[in-house]
Amino acid sequence: MVKKSIFQRKLDEILTNFDENSSKNGKKPSLLLHACCAPCSSYVLEYLAKYFEITILYYNPNIYPEEEYRRRLGELEDFLPRFTPAVDAKVKIVKDSYEPAEFYAAVGTDKEPELAREPEKGERCRRCYQLRLRRAYDYASAHKFDYFCTTLSISPFKDAEKINEIGERLAAGEQGETRDGWETSEGEGKASGPRWLPSDFKKKSGFLRSLQLSEEYGLYRQQYCGCVFSKENTDAFRNEKC
Fold first, then answer.
1. What is the model's pLDDT at position 188?
2. Is 90 exposed, middle or buried (0-12, 13-18, 19+ CB in 10 A)?
3. Are strands 92-95 and 53-58 parallel, antiparallel or unpaired?
């Protein structure tokens, strides 16, 4: 628990520093925020909008089936113009491509089928975090954002320690495997690229607040993480309880 709580403390320190220096330059730093859905975005936007110029990146090739992907994207697009913090902060959204093959190639369940049966927070999920955060880093780097982050840590079913470790390594220039997409300069990393914004958004009652906002705005809350494996595992668990 100590390791996980430190990410929220780090974020609080960063935001306190912003408050102390805001009167000096009057310009908010830019944040590329990877988002998976409207409910997870709600509290995060409420929390961060006064500190950053935020652009949301919707890149989620893991979501299954395509109808579910479209529904979650549509819900987010419908929510933003109705949510005062997002409207006041002029939050933008970038819709990336939907290529499920990228997800399956990243998680490698064809070669390691046992990963398909893993519970949430395992190696399959870590590889999925890596895929989406790498995409966010690439976009943030190419478009000169000051910071990048994700809403994923608001979920109690996501491993904040793994998410932050991946983000920190990307910001430090540890790129890992080569990906197609936006090009970044050789050697680009901590000195010239975007900084990772540490987070564990479920802390400080963040997840509870997302539930409250979801109810207030009538948001669709999905019953599984997103991928076909999480859906199958969730369905199997429900059938066992029946």
1. 41
2. exposed
3. parallel
